[in-house]
Amino acid sequence: MKALVSKSWLKENLNNPNLIILDASISKNAAKKVFESSNIMIPRARRFDLKNVFLDTTSPFPNTVPNPEYFQHQCQKLGINKNSEIVVYDNAGIYTSPRVWWLFNIMGHDNISVLNGGLPDWVANGFATVKAYETTFKHGNFKVNFNAEAVILYEQMIRNCKTQDFLTIDARSKGRFNGTEKEPRIELQSGHIPNSINIHYQEVLEEGKFKSKTALKALFNKKCKGNKPLVFSCGSGITACIVLLASNLAYSKNLKVYDGSWTEWAIINELFTK
Q1: Residue 198 and residue 69 in one domain
Q2: CA gap 109, 194 in Å, rounded
Q3: Which terminus, N or C, of the chain has the lesser number of Cβ atoms within 10 Å?
Q4: Could you tell me the residue range of the domain that residue 261 belongs to?
Q5: What's the start-to-end Cα distance of the chain, in Å?
Q6: Backbone CA torsion sign across 227, 230, 233, 237
């Protein structure tokens, strides 16, 4: 499957028995931005709870990658199979769905697409909606083949500050990156990881959809120098995946995310400087 599919494609394939539709919507983000929710969803959608289920609940940092065996178990409970074709969407257009796309890819399942424009675009075009998730399905046989190298750790980030083996792209706003705007998590200072560059996730989007491949390629060519491997970061690993997917569409197929992101970096470095 392509990394990105349109509303028209999904509408035409809605009755494909091998297709599984995942709703990764959230009600609000760390900045307390509320995402509109009218308790409607795309027909046949199953709830993919990114904030309470599909994460490492033991981690001190938000949104961290779950244990692979746990991820496998939860996917099987959702009726996902090894050969399932997956489409994921969210209620912001493009926000949490790229994170789900990335999770499945690093877990060894690349037969997944993001719905470009998400639920807002689907609804705006008058396509059918329902008021309940699909909950009746057989236990799946989904299997994980985890790519641990795609999950970058703090120690690797520290080492890269000296070696500069890879380029870190930070998806937070320019103000947060430059330290002129407060972090939404009030306990954190703003600023950025040394030698990283800033591509705010909104720079790769236009009206809730990804920009054209031509526009995305031009953006990455302008921002990324030296032809180095890319690692993506943000506040807590969500919007990093938006920019990562944009790169995947038009520039580079790197799948690596600094999963602790700025939350981990700022907390640990503050402890070291006290």
Answers
A1: no
A2: 33
A3: C
A4: 149-273
A5: 49
A6: positive
Of 146, 178, 198, which residue sits at a domain end? Answer: 146
Catalytic entry in 75, 161, 224, 234 = 234
Q: Are residues 131 and 154 in the same domain?
A: no
Kindly give, in sequence order, each residue whose CB lies less than 8 Å from that of residue 11, ignoring residues fewer than 6 positions away: 127
3-state secondary structure of 196: coil
Q: 133 with 167, same domain?
A: no
Q: How confident is the model at residue 274 (pLDDT cuts 50, 70, 90)?
A: very low
Length of the chain as a residue count: 274
Structural domains counted in the chain: 2
The pLDDT tens digits for 193-230 are 999 999 999 999 999 999 999 999 999 999 998 889 99
Q: For residue 234, indicate whether it is catalytic.
A: yes
Does residue 38 surpass a pLDDT of 80?
no
Q: What is the pTM of this model?
A: 0.95
Contact 236, 220 (CB under 8 A): no
Q: How confident is the model at residue 36 (pLDDT cuts 50, 70, 90)?
A: low
- Domain end, chosen from 146, 180, 214, is at 146
Give Cα separations from 196 to 134, 219, 272 (angstroms): 42, 16, 20
- Give per-residue pLDDT as tens, 232-262: 999 999 999 999 999 999 999 989 999 999 9
Task: Kindly state whether residues 165 and 108 are assigned to the same domain.
Answer: no
**For residue 208, how many C-alpha atoms fall within 13 Å in the half-sphere facing its CB?**
17
CATH of the domain at 203: 3.40.250.10
Binning the chain into helix, strand and coil, the percentages to the nearest 5 are: 35, 15, 50
230 with 106, same domain: the answer is: no
